[in-house]
Write a structure and sequence with these properties.
Layout lengths: L11 H9 L14 E5 L4 H10 L3 E6 L3 E6 L1
């Protein structure tokens, strides 16, 4: 998927991957995403829990494998 680009050169993978990996300089709060569905094993999961504690996002669902967050 990392090689897939649309006719304008846009790659959803290139946009999403740094966020998913919680790389420095890439903030989920600075995106237009309003819902995040992620594995609880990904680096961004802890970041999302911090955003919940800060009142910016709400945890809508969680089990051992995945979590769903919604922007408030």
């Amino acid at each position: 998927m990392h090689l897939w680009r649309d006719e304008n050169g846009y790659s959803a993978f290139a946009e999403y991957y740094p966020l998913e990996q919680n790389w420095s300089g890439y903030e989920i709060d600075d995106t237009e995403y309003n819902v995040v569905f992620i594995s609880t094993r990904k680096s961004i999961y802890k970041k999302m829990l911090q955003l919940v504690d800060n009142g910016k996002w709400k945890l809508r669902y969680r089990d051992d494998d995945a979590a769903i967050f919604e922007r408030i």
